[in-house]
Amino acid sequence: MANLRDIRRRIKSVKNTAQITRAMQLVAAAKMKKAQDQAIAGRDYATQLNQVLINLKSNVEEESHPLLQKREGQRELMLVISTDKGLCGALNTNLFKKVRSSSGDETHYVTVGRKLRNILSKLYTDRIEADFEVKDPVPFADARPIAKFLTKAFLEGGYDKVTIAFNSFVNVMNQVPTVVQLLPLSAQAVGEDEDSGLTEEQKSAALTKEYAFEPSPMQVLDTLLPLYINFQVYQTLVEARASEHSARMVAMKAATDNAKKFIKELTLQYNKARQAAITSELLEITTAMKAME
What we know:
Blueprint: H1 2-57, E1 76-81, H2 91-102, E2 107-112, H3 114-123, E3 128-132, H4 140-155, E4 161-171, E5 174-183, H5 200-208, H6 217-292
Parallel strand pairs: 1-2, 1-4, 2-3
Antiparallel strand pairs: 4-5
Helix pairs in contact: 1-5, 1-6, 4-6
């Protein structure tokens, strides 16, 4: 009977776990919808901003602006956006592998999210330059100090390039660990690359469209580039947050399904053990009755 009690305890424990994972799945699903809408909503704005920047770049010399100047060194500052909480599958592990493969000996880090901050601080104690916290859902105001810190570090000449490592949201089942260059603004960043998200028609329209820049293209660029950098940081933050909630929802659903499957197996095991115990008791009674005859 002790075995039956153990099985009953295990069934009860797994049921409690299933209730917890189910509740976490529902919470993650609700947060995922908000984060997904937030991430998708910014993509159209990014497209329009890219088109304006393409036109602006055709009116000024790239080397004339410090945020566009390419440098030859290998000193890199990488913004790593991970999660504060776990239970989201291999999301942070895959991102860490991407960070390790993309960074070099002269790479320093700025972190958002506790998970990879803890890992990087142990591996590279003297390379963590700053750490930022971001609310959920992500407000645009939280992106500004991060963008300001990265821009200042680049302009002061401490680093030759600034990159961002984050999980790009594709769909609920697919989140891709990605590293993109933020500074100096690359061809991909301003829509001149085939992976920029702009079609050939959009690129052509951006170049042929006539803008009236007042007071001058360079002064407009001085104002627009910081805005663009702020928005790029913000967009990567919301993409990473949408990826986090999607991965957690999928992980918790898988955990709930596995718990239900385990409950069925334990219930079958319990019924077999119970049947065996009843059969054993009947045999004992039958044997005792025959012995008394």
